[in-house]
Amino acid sequence: MQIPACTGLTIVGHSGQSTGSVNIINNRDLSPVTLTMSIMPTLFIPHGGGPCFFMEWDPRDTWDRMAAYLRGIPTDTGRRPDAIVLISGHWEEEFVTIQNNPSPPLLFDYYGFPESTYQIEYPAPGSIEYAERISVLLGQAGIASKFEAERGFDHGVFIPLKIAYPEADIPIVQVSLRVDLDPAAHFEIGEALQPLRNEGVLILGSGMTYHNMQTMMKNMRGSHDATRASELFDAWLTEVLTTIDPEARERALVEWERAPAARMAHPREEHLLPLHVVVGAAGPDKGRKMLQDTVLGAVQSAFQFG
Q: Does 36 fall in a domain?
């Protein structure tokens, strides 16, 4: 669905069921149009380490299971999205910042990898129209935001999506984290974006369920420092996301630092907070674990809501 410019658009009504109707009233002529479609799920995916899926590793299958999960996302979600709104653990701003570049370049924000990984191409379009829609939704929720027209897709965007949607033909709008890393605030951002799910938009959080790079690098040299901490944190996270009611789930995620091995799993939480946005957008939908993998000695998982 191509969304018209939001200055002439009002959205009313929202269904949390498996299908929903959205009444669109054009403010210029007040003529309503009703669109009925399946509600899109929300996803939290691991994006791996740097350009990991596009280089050689020892052992060779280090990232194969994660890559297989990413390739299966179109099947898991059940339909092709009209657009993707993606929150990556690699972009932080003082205010929520919305990419509004119609043709974003790639931001190769990783270092020390083979030269070939800096030649990767992913010419997916951006979308001014969806960027404006996001701004409207955030504003209605009282959340300050701004636009960014120059920044490209970071590797939390183009690396996993090149696996999941290799044709690069779905419009993508990247949305930043807030630099204060407030978990409640990021949950509220997701809540504000929830109506997009009834508009054919896939809301996707790109991070890692375990992101202590120091211990993961030790594991590459034969240590097992990450294993037990990642198991404990992943077990807690799985229980919270897949078994408890939405209100308790929100409280647990806001207080995530109380979880077993929380700060061992996330010395800094920028790779976890895309999950808070995704869960905020999930509404009452219960989570399903779509992947549990062990990479470089650490458990890494993916979750889908709806």
A: no
For the entire predicted model, the pTM comes to 0.86
Structural domain includes residue 30: no
Q: Which residues neighbour 242 within 8 Å (Cβ) at sequence distance 6 or greater?
A: 286, 287, 288, 289, 303
Cα–Cα–Cα angle for 38, 156, 54, rounded to 5 degrees: 105
Residue 234 lies in a domain: yes
pLDDT at 40: 98
| Residue 162, in any domain of the structure | yes
* pLDDT tens digit sequence for 268-302: 999 999 999 999 999 999 999 999 999 988 999 99
* 46: β partners: 207
- Nearest-angstrom CA–CA distance, 104 and 152: 5
Regions of the chain short of the pLDDT cut 70: 1-37, 217-225
Question: The domain containing residue 143 runs over which residues?
Answer: 43-305
> What is the C-alpha separation between 23 and 87, in angstroms, rounded?
27
Domain total in the chain: 1
